[in-house]
Each structure stands twice: as structure tokens, then as C-alpha cells.
Fold this protein.
Amino acid sequence: MEDHHIKVDLLQLLDDNRLTVTQGTSDKKNVLFVVGKSSAVEKLEEFASSCADRINLKIVTVENLSLASKGSLFNAILLGFGEDDNSSSDLSLIPTYTSLLIGGGMLIAKTIVGIEDMLVKRMKLCGFLNVAMSKSIPGIVTGNMPTYKVGTSDKVTLNPETKENVISAWKLDANNSETISEDDLLEADDLKKPDTSSLRVCATTKKAKACKDCTCGLAEELEANRLKDTPKPDTSNAKSSCGSCYLGDAFRCASCPYLGMPAFRPGEKVQLSGNLLQDDL
């Protein structure tokens, strides 16, 4: 990083940013110089006296910055232009400068060459617009406040005819307003009461699902309902594809509908018992 104590022609800097007026003009700009050390005040006071007919300059140290807020607002604040001054490195003070500037006021800060990006980012976060680094003078960063101040207000005048139209558009007429009955929003299924059996839940899972070691009877009830809704297979016309089903399990295939039943005579009618449809587990 380069030395940031670069000599700057302050009068030329003020002229370039249109902060000075022609000699004899009464409408002079108010500019605040903020310095980090009291030793820099004397030299800046000499500069302020030399151009007092073109600009109103006020000088204050960082530690006495609160005193500047008691007066009028400033058109511009110059920061870090004192001798051996590093006041611009204190980024926490940037929000304070926004409260000292008029709408559209300018902050001109001189910082260490090479770290201007930090100052640019901080100024943008604090609400400054058009923040940019100087192309002619290294280490100079400038930015403007919005043309309005926070908390300002202005009177809005409405056309009387427009005002009446707006009011009438939002006015409710009890005689002409259309309403919807709450009952019309309900369907027939919404009025049906749920079956109490469907509301039963397991005390452990808090759901209509039995826990692993269910002892309240919910598991049996759910299984009975499942079997009730499961259609039973029709075995009245069952035929053996291998011709050995009647001989017993030793001669039956894995998908044999008679698997697990005792042997029987060929042609004998066989009925599957209900417990064969239940899982072993």
C-alpha cells in the first residue's frame, strides 16, 4: 500500500466538486472538515480564512464531532485531509456523517491508497449514492446522499373528483352487496360424521397403526378389518396342473393352492379354511 498522505490542492478539489462560489456571492456552501488530530486544525484554519469569501468552512476533530450536529446541515464533508490524518479509517463513523449532510450532500474522504474498496463498500451500505474512487487523485473516494432526508414529508393534494371516485369504489352498500352463505361452501361429505372406529389410535404411536408389542387389541382389530376387506380366493374350480396335488405337500409345487393341507382323494371337493389366509407372523 502506498502512503496516503498525498498533498491535495484543497481549493481545486472544492472547485471541481462545485462547492465554491464566485467572490462576493452571498449564497456560499457550508463545508465541514473532519480531522483526526487537533494539530491539523491550525493549518486548515489558515486555509479557511484564505477562501472565506467563497465558502463557509468549519473544522472539527473526530472526538468533537457531536458539536457539529448542533448547527445547520452541511453541503459537504471533507474527511481525512489533515496532516498525518487517518480519520477516514474509522468506518463506524460513516453513518454519523449521513446525519450531518443535507439531501444530496457530498462526502469526500481521503484514505490509504489500495484500500479504497473498503470505504466504498461502507459508504454504499450507509446509503450514499454515486460512490466512486477519484481517477485523478489516488485515495480519494466521493459519494452523495439521496436528494431527500429520512423523515421528510410532503403534502399530497388529491383532485376532489378523483377522491370521491376512490371513496365510492371502496364503499360497501348493504342493499346491493352480494354475500355468500357459509352453508353454500359446504358439500355433503363435509357434513358426515366420521366413524368412531376410524378415530382410534395407538397409545404409543399416536396413530392408527399398532406398535410392535401391541397389547390394547388394536393390532387384532386392524388385522380383522384387513381380512374383512380382502376378497377370498375361489377354489371351487381349482385344477391341478401337475396332477399330484392330492398326494400331499411332498408332491406339491411352491404355488400349489392346496399347500399345507392333508392328502385327499382325486375328485374330492376341497375347501380352504379361513386360517390359511392369515400370515404366520
The mean pLDDT is 78. The first helix runs from residue 10 to 16. The chain has seven helices and six strands.
